[in-house]
Write a structure and sequence with these properties.
12 strands; 12 helices; six-stranded parallel β-sheet; 3 domains; 434 Repressor (Amino-terminal Domain)
């Protein structure tokens, strides 16, 4: 008799049955007795108490990393590696084994159909590059799911992401309060949901405080380091004036901007630069950079905690975790 069959009879999750079989905490006494009674009735073989203590893994989850753009979106793969490492570490702490798959847009549909038939207790999707249609597919799965790093709105699904819109609104507001009236924004031509939300927060603040909405203050660059650097150099060398306060979409664009400044022998300390950080070294930072420090370990912790709650307690509620990262200012003048 399989664990899933016992779980169905006991009206609990397979993970709860696994906890009982392996002698682990986290199950009420009445539920534990009911499951043990079913096990006895159906003759399920349970290992000894000694082996139960040695077995620290009680369940398994699938982590699916959706890499839609491949290597064309530079810097994103490094972020995924950090997410995968942290998710695995946090899952193992709670007794969950992790099976990882990386899929792209071409094989996602086929892989998705396969997932429906896989025997996992839950699935976490690293959904950074997913669009609304992708997330809607996930919301129809009849298995505990959590999406990570995608602030998609108006879809009923558990998620953990940065509160991109409010974060960028408040950053723009702070620049305004420091006296800046021309605040620029450098955007990647590939617009992920995170980037869209950040830009919306910026534009909401621009309109709220009556700041310039000139199109020249919004600069679009290619999603590669070389492409972004080349376009930024062209922009700086043109007749258009670069605002003294600049917000950038991501780490790669920030690094390209600093490199463009260095190539043109421009002192970056003349500007206040804001970047949302997943992993950026101090060597790249200017002395007037404001960093919104997004920690992969924080997001991974909340994603694993949520999938654990859904597995163990059969929590059918949908919860969106929005994380507002701390602000770090590298500046001696501000």
């Amino acid at each position: 008799m399989k664990i899933r069959e016992i779980a169905k009879i006991a009206n609990v999750s397979p993970a709860t049955v696994s906890l009982v079989i392996n002698g682990k905490k986290g199950v009420g006494e009445a539920t534990r007795k009911r499951i043990l009674s079913i096990i006895d009735d159906f003759g399920y073989e349970v290992t000894s108490n000694v082996s139960r203590k040695e077995n620290k893994i009680f369940g398994n989850i699938k982590v699916i990393c959706f890499n839609k753009y491949g290597d064309s979106l530079q810097g994103i793969v490094e972020i995924y590696k950090k997410f995968l490492d942290e998710l695995t570490r946090e899952a193992n702490k709670l007794g969950l084994a992790v099976d990882i798959s990386i899929v792209n847009e071409k094989n996602f549909s086929d892989f998705f159909e396969e997932v429906r038939n896989l025997d996992y207790h839950g699935i976490i999707f690293i959904a950074t590059e997913m669009n609304r249609q992708d997330v809607e597919l996930i919301s129809d799965l009849n298995i505990p799911c959590v999406i990570l790093d995608n602030p998609i709105e108006n879809i009923c699904i558990d998620s953990v992401s940065t509160d991109n819109s409010n974060m960028m609104f408040n950053m723009t507001k702070e620049l305004f309060e420091f006296g800046y009236r021309e605040i620029g924004y450098i955007r990647s031509t590939i617009q992920l949901e995170n980037y869209k939300a950040r830009y919306n927060g910026y534009m909401n603040a621009i309109k709220r405080f009556g700041l310039s909405t000139s199109r020249e203050n919004v600069i679009y660059v290619k999603p590669s380091f070389a492409g972004a650097k080349s376009e930024l150099i062209k922009y700086i060398q043109s007749d258009r004036k670069l605002p003294k306060a600049l917000i950038v979409d991501n780490n790669m664009v920030y690094a390209a901007l600093i490199n463009a400044f260095n190539t043109l022998k421009i002192d970056s300390s003349e500007f206040v630069l804001i970047v949302v950080n997943n992993d950026i070294t101090n060597q790249v930072l200017g002395n007037r950079a404001w960093i919104m420090d997004v920690l992969p370990e924080t997001m991974a912790y909340h994603a694993i905690k949520r999938i654990y709650e859904k597995i163990i307690y059969l929590d059918g509620n949908k919860i969106k975790h929005l994380i507002n990262p701390k602000l770090i200012k590298f500046s001696s003048e501000i």
